[in-house]
Amino acid sequence: MDTSQLLKGVLDLAVLAVLRKDDGYGYDVVRRLRAGGLNDVGDASVYGTLRRLYNAGMLTSYVVPSEEGPHRKYYSINETGRGRLAESAEMWRSFASTLDGLLEEVAA
Amino acid sequence: MNTQELGIEHYLAELRVALDDLPPNEVAEIMEDVRAHVAELSAELGPGETLEQRLGPAERYARELRQAAGYPPRTERLPVTTKRQWLTRPRAAAWGLAGATGITLLAGTVALRDPAVLLLPAVILVLSLALVHDRGPVQQDVRHLPETVRLKKWLTPEQGTPAERTITYLRTLQPAWWLVRAALLGLGAVLLASRNLLGFLAIAAVAVVSVYAGPRAKLDRRWLWFSLPASALAVGVLFQVIDMTATQLGYTPERSSYSGPVMQQYENIYVYDENGKMLTNVLLYDQDGEPINAPRYYSRCAANAGPEPVIPANRYPRPQIEYQNGVCYTVAPSVSAPSTSSAAEPSGSAPPSSGSEPSSPVPPTSVSPSK
Fold first, then answer.
1. Which residue of B41, B65, B74 to mutate against A (max A Cβ within 10 Å)?
2. Is B32 on the interface with A (CB under 8 A)?
């Protein structure tokens, strides 16, 4: 099964999760996701997700001037975002455990 | 701008096109993110590796981004409805740009004589840009005008044809043209500097800004309202410089070979009265009282340094010079001399009686060896 199909549904959650502790700019978020094990995550998908979460009011952004190259736009999670993260995390856990249960039955 | 930076700009431009149906604010935000991303990525690229290899084609990147961001799929903006309203703002702006560029090309050929003519295209440009300036850097309304689409189609021939290769090649020369354009405009400004300070400042400013406008117009199409006429002006200045140079080259040989009106050469003058009698010892003066001296050549008498005339140089007829045994003699004028020598005869009719024997000439000096 193609993990990119699975990713689509949970990329919001993953992005919110990596922004939970530290703010980050786009490529920074991509790197954290990959470092966390999501090797197949596409650059454009992450950028799109950041824009969607921002437009949905779950992230705020600020620009940090860079000495070499263009300015970097950092995204940080706000209260709405944290609320959504907690909610989605709960949903994911119950979904994952349901699926685990189904898989155990298959294995048994 | 090196090839890597050009690669980035190219990728970003393609991406921008693929997103140009989205709200301009949103596109600007996305481009801000992606620009930083692409810049950072390209710094990590190995030698020979391209952005496309790393990120996939810009179009796919845009599709993936749209999907993740929840934007609608790419919709082709329909051309502005032409039936209901023919003269839309984008159309007026596009034709204003085209017209002003044409006028600038014509005006550019006389701009060095009278830079004020450039005010006309400048006003047209400002007005036409004002019509569409608020529509963002992509100018999709202008892009989708039927005439623009047709022009673009004409400028992008089928892949692999000689025309396509030529246009692709010319595109690679564009950055060079931006420099040449600035140089031409600078030259025009310098040529104006001594005569028209305002014109000098205006064209010099255009020259400086044009360097920035060239690459900028790739990202923000509104700069075309500056960049295209600047090119036209540069071409106009080039024509004018060629014209000036050609005129100068055409005149120079003429001037250098100029030697004044050609005059009949003569070295003696015979004067006759109305009865056909030759007058002797006549002194001739011009209107300023200067003696009229026919040029006289003693070249054959070089051996003896030439006999000095023993009579006033403007007394006519002059004694003739006879050459004998290496010595020059001055001899009294003879009547036969003028009648036999057609060159000395004034238009053939002045001596009325060439047949009748004029009285024997009175020699101004006796025949005497000059030395």
1. B65
2. yes
For B176, phi then psi, to 5°, come to -65, -40
The band of B24, judged by pLDDT with boundaries at 50, 70 and 90, is: confident
Long-range contacts of B345-348 (CB under 8 A, 24+ apart): none
Report the domain count for chain A.
1
Buried b (16+ CB within 10 A) or exposed e, B27-53: bebbbbbbbbbbbbbbeeeeeeeebee
Residue A60: the pLDDT is 92
Higher pLDDT, A52 or A8: A52
How many angstroms away from the CA of B144 is the closest CA of chain A?
A: 27
Kindly tell me if the per-residue pLDDT of A67 is higher than 90.
Answer: no
Domain at A78, CATH number: 1.10.10.10
| Closest residue in B to A12 (Cα–Cα) | B68
- Evaluate whether ipTM surpasses 0.90: no
Counted residue by residue, chain B has a size of 371
Subunit contact B69:A48, Cβ cutoff 8 A: yes
| Domain range for A48 | 3-107
Relative orientation angle of helices B174-193 and B197-219, to the nearest 10 degrees = 170
- Position B354 pLDDT exceeds 60: no
Please report which helix (H) or strand (E) contains residue B177, including its range: helix B174-193
